[in-house]
Amino acid sequence: MYKVKVFVTLRESVLDPQGTAVKGSLHSLSFDAVKDVRIGKYMELTVDKVDNIDQMVKEMCEKLLANVVIEDYRYEIEEVVAQ
Protein backbone atom coordinates (compact mmCIF):
# COMPACT_ATOMS: atom_id res chain seq x y z
CA MET A 1 0.00 0.00 0.00
CA TYR A 2 1.17 3.54 -0.70
CA LYS A 3 0.55 6.93 0.87
CA VAL A 4 0.73 9.63 -1.79
CA LYS A 5 1.05 13.29 -0.81
CA VAL A 6 0.11 15.72 -3.59
CA PHE A 7 0.96 19.44 -3.42
CA VAL A 8 -0.71 21.79 -5.93
CA THR A 9 0.19 25.47 -6.24
CA LEU A 10 -0.58 28.25 -8.67
CA ARG A 11 2.16 28.89 -11.20
CA GLU A 12 4.37 31.87 -10.40
CA SER A 13 2.96 33.74 -13.42
CA VAL A 14 -0.63 33.46 -12.09
CA LEU A 15 -1.94 36.09 -9.69
CA ASP A 16 -2.97 34.75 -6.29
CA PRO A 17 -5.68 37.01 -4.82
CA GLN A 18 -6.18 34.71 -1.81
CA GLY A 19 -2.48 34.86 -1.04
CA THR A 20 -2.52 38.66 -1.37
CA ALA A 21 -5.47 38.89 1.05
CA VAL A 22 -3.74 36.63 3.60
CA LYS A 23 -0.54 38.65 3.31
CA GLY A 24 -2.51 41.84 3.96
CA SER A 25 -4.16 40.29 7.01
CA LEU A 26 -0.82 39.11 8.37
CA HIS A 27 0.60 42.62 7.93
CA SER A 28 -2.41 44.07 9.77
CA LEU A 29 -1.53 41.72 12.64
CA SER A 30 2.03 43.14 12.63
CA PHE A 31 3.67 40.17 10.88
CA ASP A 32 5.53 42.57 8.60
CA ALA A 33 8.37 40.13 7.91
CA VAL A 34 6.05 38.14 5.59
CA LYS A 35 6.98 39.18 2.06
CA ASP A 36 4.68 36.93 0.01
CA VAL A 37 1.95 34.32 0.45
CA ARG A 38 0.86 31.73 -2.11
CA ILE A 39 -2.18 29.55 -1.39
CA GLY A 40 -2.26 25.94 -2.57
CA LYS A 41 -3.87 22.56 -2.05
CA TYR A 42 -2.62 19.47 -0.24
CA MET A 43 -4.09 16.00 -0.69
CA GLU A 44 -3.26 12.60 0.81
CA LEU A 45 -4.22 9.48 -1.11
CA THR A 46 -4.01 5.90 0.10
CA VAL A 47 -3.45 3.62 -2.88
CA ASP A 48 -3.27 -0.15 -3.16
CA LYS A 49 0.05 -1.54 -4.29
CA VAL A 50 0.39 -1.33 -8.08
CA ASP A 51 3.37 -1.72 -10.38
CA ASN A 52 3.09 1.67 -12.06
CA ILE A 53 2.36 3.94 -9.09
CA ASP A 54 4.44 6.87 -10.37
CA GLN A 55 2.71 6.94 -13.75
CA MET A 56 -0.69 6.49 -12.11
CA VAL A 57 -0.20 9.45 -9.76
CA LYS A 58 1.04 11.64 -12.61
CA GLU A 59 -2.08 10.81 -14.63
CA MET A 60 -4.37 11.53 -11.66
CA CYS A 61 -2.73 14.91 -11.16
CA GLU A 62 -2.90 15.89 -14.82
CA LYS A 63 -6.47 14.67 -15.38
CA LEU A 64 -8.16 15.77 -12.15
CA LEU A 65 -6.15 16.93 -9.16
CA ALA A 66 -4.38 19.89 -10.79
CA ASN A 67 -5.33 22.34 -13.50
CA VAL A 68 -2.05 22.10 -15.41
CA VAL A 69 -2.80 25.29 -17.36
CA ILE A 70 -2.45 27.47 -14.24
CA GLU A 71 -1.13 25.12 -11.52
CA ASP A 72 2.05 23.22 -10.82
CA TYR A 73 2.09 20.02 -8.81
CA ARG A 74 4.53 17.73 -7.09
CA TYR A 75 4.01 14.55 -5.16
CA GLU A 76 5.69 12.19 -2.74
CA ILE A 77 5.07 8.46 -2.68
CA GLU A 78 5.70 6.47 0.48
CA GLU A 79 5.24 2.74 0.76
CA VAL A 80 3.40 1.86 3.97
CA VAL A 81 2.55 -1.36 5.73
CA ALA A 82 -1.22 -2.01 5.79
CA GLN A 83 -2.68 -2.15 9.29
UniProtKB/TrEMBL annotation:
Its main location: cytoplasm. Part of the phosphoribosylformylglycinamidine synthase complex involved in the purines biosynthetic pathway. Catalyzes the ATP-dependent conversion of formylglycinamide ribonucleotide (FGAR) and glutamine to yield formylglycinamidine ribonucleotide (FGAM) and glutamate. The FGAM synthase complex is composed of three subunits. PurQ produces an ammonia molecule by converting glutamine to glutamate. PurL transfers the ammonia molecule to FGAR to form FGAM in an ATP-dependent manner. This is Phosphoribosylformylglycinamidine synthase subunit PurS. It is found in: Cytoplasm. Part of the FGAM synthase complex composed of 1 PurL, 1 PurQ and 2 PurS subunits. Its EC number is 6.3.5.3. GO terms for molecular function: phosphoribosylformylglycinamidine synthase activity. Gene3D superfamilies: Phosphoribosylformylglycinamidine synthase subunit PurS. It is an enzyme of class 6 (ligase). It comes from Bacillus songklensis. The gene is purS. Belongs to the PurS family. Pathway: Purine metabolism; IMP biosynthesis via de novo pathway; 5-amino-1-(5-phospho-D-ribosyl)imidazole from N(2)-formyl-N(1)-(5-phospho-D-ribosyl)glycinamide: step 1/2. Keywords: ATP-binding, Cytoplasm, Ligase, Nucleotide-binding, Purine biosynthesis. PANTHER family: PHOSPHORIBOSYLFORMYLGLYCINAMIDINE SYNTHASE SUBUNIT PURS (PTHR34696). It holds the Pfam family PurS. It catalyses: N(2)-formyl-N(1)-(5-phospho-beta-D-ribosyl)glycinamide + L-glutamine + ATP + H2O = 2-formamido-N(1)-(5-O-phospho-beta-D-ribosyl)acetamidine + L-glutamate + ADP + phosphate + H(+).
